Amino acid sequence: MPIVTQQLTRRAALRLAALAGVAHAVPAFAAALPKVVMHKDPFCGCCGKWAEHLKRAGFVVETVEQKDMQAIKGRFGVPDDLASCHTAEMAGYIIEGHVPAPALLRLLETRPDAIGLAAPGMPAGSPGMEGLIAEVFDVIQFGKTGRSTFGRYKGATQV
Prior knowledge:
Blueprint: H1 10-20, E1 36-40, H2 46-56, E2 61-65, H3 69-76, E3 87-90, E4 93-97, H4 101-110, E5 116-119, E6 136-143, E7 146-154, E8 157-158
Parallel strand pairs: 1-2, 4-5
Antiparallel strand pairs: 1-3, 3-4, 5-6, 6-7, 7-8
């Protein structure tokens, strides 16, 4: 009986990683996932924790330290009321703040017409803000056509 092999597509890899859960995503999928370039203040510690959360999900994260984060947010079109401590670039999208990795995987799969996603402020218990009692928070999709709730999370889990 012949052995049939199939190449794992990027979309199938993303689905498998999402189904397996972020904590169990296989780092081998990192080749299928785009690099995340995170801009952060040199003195912010929670940003590094968010980057570790993404790395555990299979993303490659490059950190760029910036002294003037307001200028970065302005350059990328992040509305003031959606701002958080760090701003990232990924696959043509802007990711503002402590957006959970499952939201990034869904963004890559659905490819909405948007500037990006934001987790405004610094939600307690969100990825990078662990150690606090986790609150439910919205991840907002924003763009030229407006805003909508992309997902509701508690920690890294969609609720």
